[in-house]
């Protein structure tokens, strides 16, 4: 099939970014090769020589009663783990995947209503890549990002194709999130989580619906470039396709996070690395593009509130630890992250002392 649009750069940007077709629309137009703005520099392309196959991120069974130490050890060593028997019903997970496909299945003119230019609220955003205006190479991904403020606002503004399912997934994950954060705090000898600590750990939430269309040259581009999340923790639902890679513990190589039906991937974000004074690690990760099939994922980013100031917990400093991060306003930290292309672990330098 001939491409519906010419490969001219301006045309591609117009079609994908401005007209709301997304990279999904472009991929479905029958394109034979990735347009040049999607070609990543050689050092960012996925090199299969760099895949570590003898190491695995832990899988923790939350029903066994021995999860506390396993969670803390995994967060310290790997920054990533998967949980099974976590209490979030499988139908809730299946429903949010179906809803993700429903949203991205909408015609471009419907999705266009939620772009940065058109959305009636900053808290609902449909977009493509990460920050197209700041990136030299684009990422092969479309997304819908939903910042939760209240049930009322979500009911009024979230797209009807995914509103209920996304809200249900968020609500049903709350207990799991609390349990994991409490375990992580216990690991730091913080047993009394007071109100300010609680809001710093989980005062706000953002849910993203990610869509990675099938790609004609997956080796040349990326689904998501190397980055660490800026959350305290991220709860990620992925489908059964695979493609998420996590930096190995020695900083070398990439470890695949294999899809496990019914599981959720948990990772530490920069905010928790800062709050824990470097004890828990926010590990770099990336998503490969796929040459044979579409992929979806649905992360919940558990965050401080924008107006919260974050820094190493006073309890740690009182125990004699020397702070390695300063206090930063979370909204400043987030702004720093969202104003530039993904750049691995560099974001956290913003909070270095
Ligand atoms: O799609 C995935 O598996 C991960 C996505 C991701 O890293 C992110 O949205 O921050
Ligand atoms: Fe991420």
UniProtKB/TrEMBL annotation:
BP GO annotations: coumarin biosynthetic process
Pfam families: 2OG-FeII_Oxy, DIOX_N
Domain of life: Eukaryota
Keywords (A to Z) from UniProt: Dioxygenase, Iron, Metal-binding, Oxidoreductase
Keyword set includes Metal-binding: yes
Cofactor (UniProt): L-ascorbate
Protein's name in the database: Feruloyl coa ortho-hydroxylase
Originating species: Thalictrum thalictroides (Rue-anemone)
Higher taxonomy: Eukaryota, Viridiplantae, Streptophyta, Embryophyta, Tracheophyta
């Amino acid at each position: 099939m001939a491409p519906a649009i010419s490969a001219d750069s301006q045309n591609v940007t117009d079609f994908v970014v401005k007209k709301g077709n997304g990279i999904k629309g472009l991929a479905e137009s029958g394109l034979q090769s990735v347009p040049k703005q999607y070609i990543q520099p050689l050092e960012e392309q996925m090199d299969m020589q760099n895949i570590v196959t003898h190491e695995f991120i832990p899988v923790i069974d939350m029903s066994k009663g021995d999860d506390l130490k396993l969670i803390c050890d995994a967060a310290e060593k790997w920054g990533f783990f998967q949980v099974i028997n976590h209490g979030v019903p499988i139908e809730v997970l299946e429903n949010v995947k179906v809803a993700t496909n429903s949203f991205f299945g909408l015609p471009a003119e419907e999705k266009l209503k939620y772009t940065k230019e058109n959305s009636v609220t900053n808290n609902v955003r449909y977009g493509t890549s990460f920050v197209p205006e700041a990136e030299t190479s684009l990422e092969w991904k479309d997304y819908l990002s939903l910042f939760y403020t209240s049930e009322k606002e979500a009911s009024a503004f979230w797209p009807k194709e995914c509103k209920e399912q996304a809200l249900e997934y968020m609500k049903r994950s709350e207990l799991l999130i609390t349990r994991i954060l409490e375990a992580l705090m216990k690991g730091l000898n913080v047993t009394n989580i007071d109100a300010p600590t609680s809001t710093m750990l989980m005062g706000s939430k953002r849910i993203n619906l990610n869509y990675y269309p099938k790609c004609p040259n997956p080796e040349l581009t990326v689904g998501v470039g190397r980055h660490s999340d800026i959350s305290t923790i991220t709860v990620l639902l992925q489908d059964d396709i695979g493609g998420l890679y996590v930096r190995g513990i020695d900083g070398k190589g990439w470890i695949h996070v294999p899809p496990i039906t019914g599981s959720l991937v948990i990772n530490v974000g920069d905010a928790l690395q800062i709050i824990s004074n470097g004890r828990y690690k926010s590990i770099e990760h990336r998503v490969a593009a796929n040459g044979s099939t579409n992929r979806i994922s649905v992360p919940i980013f558990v965050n401080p509130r924008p107006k919260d100031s974050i820094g190493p917990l006073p309890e740690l400093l009182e125990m004699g630890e020397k702070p390695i991060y300063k206090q930063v306003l979370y909204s400043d930290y987030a702004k720093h992250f969202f104003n530039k292309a993904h750049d691995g672990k560099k974001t956290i330098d913003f909070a270095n002392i």
